[in-house]
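STRUCTURE:
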């Protein structure tokens, strides 16, 4: 066996295990080079020195080739394992979908925050009402033409999916003694044709304050502050007289249209104004129906069309977008 054969054998070892086999075959106890050394004993003394030196050189060479191949194979194995575990730390992280709050929820939290800061408590009532709480106690007796104003749904049993959150006013006033301030957010239902500004189910936020010597000035201030703080956007406001059976006097708060800045557009029906919050001083008949003396206690109430408020705040020009369940809307908040 010569140097070239040894080099070829060592180079042929494809991995560390094969290389160890090669080492044993050459240098092991029964290895070829070891075997050559064993032949030394059978040689003539004068041949021994030269042959011994030759075999020892071969052995050293084999050892060096084995060492070199070993570090080569180890290097390759390390590179392979690094490759396998390679990671691009600059790659964008995979997206983890996070839940978002619906804009109605977001704005409602702000409005609740605003009113609780003014000493209002949050109240609620059932979605399905009876005629007394939805109409009668609100000064809308049966067969009164005003009932037609609210396009009412009825259940098979004659119950009413409430047409307004004003029913919570009645429930609160009947169960408590004045003074009181409540805010009642909730869902209401109307038998309406659905279009860009109307929906059959939407949200109202009812406000009620019962105290002594309550006037329209208190209501106006409350609503103007609300628009300014919660919607912002430098909106102009105006009040118009309005008729609702459960208030006297009644009024509507309009805000300037955010979509056309007062010039007139489809959303504001070319008027430049958007009707936002109806309200007024609670009618003496309503206070009486709830067991309070209108000579002693007065009250103001309002019922803001909350979806419209959300649309104004965030510049959403179609109410249906709030309800079509598309994540593309919610992801923007
Ligand atoms: Zn407009």
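SEQUENCE:
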């Amino acid at each position: 066996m010569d140097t070239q054969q040894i080099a070829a054998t060592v180079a042929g070892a494809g991995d560390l295990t094969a290389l160890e086999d090669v080492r044993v075959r050459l240098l092991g106890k029964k290895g070829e080079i070891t075997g050559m050394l064993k032949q030394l004993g059978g040689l003539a003394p004068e041949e021994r020195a030269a042959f011994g030196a030759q075999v020892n050189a071969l052995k050293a060479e084999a050892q060096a080739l084995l060492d070199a191949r070993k570090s080569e194979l180890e290097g390759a194995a390390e590179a392979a394992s690094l490759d396998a575990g390679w990671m691009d730390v600059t790659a964008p992280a995979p997206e983890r979908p996070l839940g978002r709050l619906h804009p109605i929820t977001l704005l409602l939290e702000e409005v609740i925050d605003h009113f609780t800061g003014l000493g209002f408590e949050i109240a609620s009532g059932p979605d399905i009402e009876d005629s007394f709480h939805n109409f009668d106690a609100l000064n809308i007796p049966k067969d009164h033409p005003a009932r037609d104003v609210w396009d009412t749904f009825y259940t098979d049993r004659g119950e009413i999916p409430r047409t307004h959150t004003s029913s919570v006013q009645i429930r609160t006033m009947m169960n408590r003694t004045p003074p009181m301030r409540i805010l009642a957010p909730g869902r209401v239902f109307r038998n309406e044709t659905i279009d860009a500004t109307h929906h059959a189910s939407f949200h109202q936020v009812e406000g009620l304050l019962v105290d002594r010597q309550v006037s329209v000035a208190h209501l106006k201030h409350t609503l103007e502050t609300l628009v300014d703080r919660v919607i912002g956007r430098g909106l102009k406001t105006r009040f118009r007289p309005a008729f609702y059976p459960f208030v006297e006097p009644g009024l509507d708060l309009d805000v300037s249209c955010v979509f056309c800045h007062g010039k007139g557009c489809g959303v504001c029906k070319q008027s430049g104004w958007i009707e936002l919050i109806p309200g007024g001083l609670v009618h003496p008949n309503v206070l009486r129906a709830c067991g309070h003396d209108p000579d002693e206690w007065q009250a103001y109430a309002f019922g803001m069309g909350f979806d419209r408020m959300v649309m104004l705040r965030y510049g959403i020009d179609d109410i249906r977008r709030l309800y079509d369940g598309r994540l593309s809307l919610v992801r923007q908040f």
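REMARK: Residues 257, 259-260, 264-265, 267-268, 272 surround zinc ion (CB under 6 Å).
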